[in-house]
Write the structure tokens for this entry.
Amino acid sequence: MDVQESVLRQIRSICQHGREQYLLGYYRKARIHYIEAQKLALTLSIANVAELDCQIEHLRFDILLDISATFREQCQFDEALKYDDEAETLARKIDDSLRIAKCLDNKGRINTVKGLYQQALTNYQTSLDMKLKLLVNDNNSHLADTYHGLGDVYYRQDRLPQAQTMYYKSLTIRMEYENGKSLDVAESYTSLGNVYIKQSKYDDALTMFRASQTIRYELLGEYNLAVAASYFSIATYYYYQYLEDECLAMFKKSLRMRLDILGEVHVDVADSYYHIGLAYGLRYKFYDKALKMCNKALVIGVHLLGENHLLIAKIYNYMGSFYTADLSQHGLALTMYRNSLHTLLKILGQNNLSVAKIYYNIGLVYCRQMNIDNAVSMYKQSLNIQLQLVGGINDDVARIYNNLAFVYKMQSNYDLAESAYQKCLNIWLQIFGPNHPFIAETFDKIAELYHSQGNYQHASNIRNIADNIRRNNDHTIKVKQTKSINQLLLELKDDLAKQSSQDTGLQHNEQQENNEKEYFRAYYEALLDGKCQSDFIRIMITGPENVGKSSVIKIFTHQGLVALANPTQVMEDTGQVLDLKTYNIWDQETYDFKDILKAKVMIVVENFKKQLCLQSDHNKEAYDNDTLTTSCQLSDMIDNTLHISSDIPALQATGESLETQDQTTSISNTDQQFAADNANTEDNNQKTATLSTPSNQDESESYAGLVKYFNKLFKNYPQHQSIMKDKIEIANSQFGKLWDFGGQAMYHITHHPFMSGNSIYILVFNIAQDIDQPVIQRDGQEANYTYIQSIQEWLTSTIGSYSGNDDITVHFDGVDETYSLPIIILIGTHGDLIDSVYEQKLRFDLYERTMVRYLPSFKSHICSSGIIFNCNANDINSTVDSERQQCCQKLHHIIQQFVSHLPFMKRSIPVRWYIMATLLHSCDDDTNSTTQSSNETDIAIKISNIMSVDQIRELAIDCGLYENDTNLHDMLLYLHDTGEILYCQREGLQQMVVTNLDWLINIFRAIIKLDLDDIKSATVREYYLLARTTGKMAGKCVNYALAQFNLKANEIEFILKLLQSYNIICPMEVNQYLVPYLLQTVTQQFDISDYQISEWLYIGYDHQVISYIPDGIFHCLVAACYQTWQFPQVELAYQSAKFCLRDDHHHVIIKKERSFIALQYCYQYDQDSEVAKWIVDNVEVSIAEKRPHVIIKDLLSNIVQERLPKFKHATPYYSVTCTKCSQQTDITSHAPTNPILIQCSQCNGFFKSQALKDWKFDAQNQVEVAEDQSQQTQSSDSNIATTVDIKDADGQLVQVFIQNPSTSAKPYLARICSGIGINWKDMARTLDIDNTVINTISVNKPNDVNQQCADMLSFHISNKGSEFTKLALVTALFASGLRSIAEDNHLINM
């Protein structure tokens, strides 16, 4: 036994030598001693003497933990954990809970250095709980290390109040047990000083640093790591005092010690290099040296710590600042900031001072780029975080105010600029005192501000103040220590006591906060994998004017009928949402669309939460069996990102959940693993990869974006459970959104942007009116068109808007019926005007049969419901109520059956799409709310009535909703189909989105006035009256209408482009617009009595395909002709137009006649035979050479393909009037040698067509006749169509249907250039075009990407010739990630 005690004494002596080396920083030497002691300890055998055996085991434990500490300090973390685990195993073996807690403390320190802060907190908290249970005295010395470790984590997370509390607790214990003169006390002083630095309490920080340095000198001497750390701390003080020389000297002094003791490859050395770089950066001329130091730090740091570490993020951020000063390097600066932000958001979350500094730096870049709005946004986001974490008296806060003042001045917003400068000045006065150079500089800036406003006297007075400060300042900042260490500790004690009383209130919210963590995690998982049923569809109520459409909607949605209700203008999203699965005629409740969307999202999140709870139970069981390893990184992300803890001011004040301050614009990337345990790591990595960034961005938002929308969705978390309980039925329901389309003819052209094939249409007609009779208008007058013509208009426009050829089979009354999409449900009204039920049915059936007779190809789309509503508002007896209820139930049943079979409603969509819809819908409420949080304001200001796709992408990234561009495109199409947005894909409007359809519809209403009584200006009213008789609207009318909406310049530009693109207005040479649809139906036709006229030539389609040409198509044709003929004089009449082709000496008249466009030309009749012959000769030459009928035919074909994609493969043909039977006949049957000798397809008789002669279908133009014959009789055979597999940008095979794949690509090139735009270089590389050619094109047309694209394609086709086919073009588009261009331009069919 004596021998063993002797060996124990020897071991303790060796360990003491090791600890001495450890304290000096000689970790390798220390470890040599520890390993020697360990070998000796292993020679000891158990003596079966309890006290001695216990000493042996304790000593073995201490050695293992000491060895672990040496590896930890040398950043050899795997070895450190290995020895820590051995120590913990030994502690468990001897059942020593206190030593187990020490192992956890050590793990906490390792994880802190590694940047795994949540895991470190878990280690320390578990240790603390164990120690508090074991130790009777709360001030036991064993607690000090744990408190200090917790403080280290909180400090790195910028949770400064918590850090200060932990450091102070540790310090008070250490001072009690170690008499205030230990290295541990010195460590506590340094740590508290670091907190003061972040709080801009620089003098207090210096007091702490000096006290720590004194202790270390006394105990260790002047050359060791502890003293090096003191030099480092004091250098930090000098840095924030802008004492460049003192700062640099002290950092270098610290570095020399660290290099000598630790060597080059160490975290502390990397940190020293980084801070020396900071010191060099205080002077512009030393930027090269600063960058060199940062690069050294980066290499060492990445080698030891990897990319995802706080130090690495800080280095990237600082390196970005070097490139900010160089305009040509701003892209590189932003890359550095993105790298930094990417890391910080993953390890620290959003509310962090380092994150705030990055936003500040990004603001500097935007400011230098003169992108003022974005600069202000970045500065404000940085400011909000700073104010939340460190309060208003802070150097960084002052700098933000200083920069805000600068940008406000650039905007000439002098009041805001002065206010910001004043705030900056007040802060710096409190931090630096009155004689600091910053104070003088700020006064100079205020003086300059007054000078800019012309207040020269005031500017002069302010400059005098600045000059006096400079004269009184000896350019040396006096280092002062105004408080003793004891005074400072007493103040700190009082401050922490006040904080403690506030923290107590937060403890009551702990359970709620934990629930919020669970919901955030569930929300994130739902965002990755969550799918919803496509649960929304628009139900479009259409039909002629004054037939009772609005009355049907009111009856169907349980609203009271109103006699003589105002007509619907243009159209209206009624706001009525029907539950298609639980519709109840007795249920008077109406659903708010926003509530439904939110409930849908909540249901998905709730389901994921249940799954996670099951997983959590499994993990708990694993923990009980000691198989759970480290805490999952997802929990780390949740805690750090949400900051659900006692440092959230919003929670302290109100108890509300997750009300964080302004969140960020997206810049970083989400590539962190989210494994809850090792088994799920690979799977979750695959999930995370789905949230990839666009190819032209380096990285996307990490967690801040997710929090942004989560805060918004669950901001009223306490009411969440009641919402779930009340709306649980919503999860399995599908909803129809009712839209009411105005029936007036003038509105038809405005409906096209809002049409969607993925909708159900209800066609309403008045059975009390004869179908062949003129429509009765609201004023009782007869229109110039009949009910059947109006119905033809609706049916052709509606069915033609759908590009697919889908059929569905629906089960009605025991019978399977097949319908083509889109579905048209026929509904009759005004049954109250016809007493006999039998007569009502007859009239309903007559309407149906007439429609089918006139439009035979649409038969498969029509559902004849047999429903006839009583629309008499005064008829309210119980029998009528019962009849109306039965009609509603029947209509609901029909809609429900169709909805359940529609492909559009069967698809699963990402829950992100509903989240985006919720976001867009809630912006108006947020903007108008007086209680909105800054986070909500930040979201709301990013949403405007008009947004580009790039802005939508940025918003999606910003809120964590972005996956990829293809998904974004699909989402926009879906939201367009459901009536949430208008997704513009027409030429000139590509990549634009209208998010507020009510706003757009109101603009349409303002321009197309149904009632002129509300126009105050007599001049404008006169212009509108003139438009109704001439079809030409003065620009003043448009300006008058738009002025009501306070539009910005870019909004006005977009609205005008939109109106022109959809041919709602067509600009003329003078300040006028063509608006043929505004013409009154009683407008007189043209007087051509003094003209020589041609015979009518007709252009139309196969009656079995397109039986009717809608008015909207004709109006577009008028506008297209006007633009093609370069703005000739034009005269308009009802459904006709006369163009004066002055240079060709004739007029061309086009007129719509149901299913044909009629053409006629006329020219001046002159008595002088010589003049007359000259005119005739010139006209005939013009007709023969310029072939206006071919131009019109081609324009009509293009318009039909674009506006009626259902008929995109239909080909127009010519026809003439048979002189024998007066019927129209095509021109395909003609004599072989005489193309004007036609055989009538109706009476089979032969006749010579004067029309063909007039339009020069003679021998020299036989080819034209042959072409028309081929198009008419062999349209299905003349086009080769095939299905091919094409690889997309991801290498996935996509099956597409392509017509004429072997034809030249040349005809398609002009129309795709604007769509390709900035992506033309990607396309060029796909086509294997040399980089030299690409660079030459870029230089030749530096500011016109569309022309660059055109030049690139022209170059390629000139090289490849016939090899560059339509198929080759489509293949290149797919491979370049431009699939949507091929789809949008109808190059393929899916």
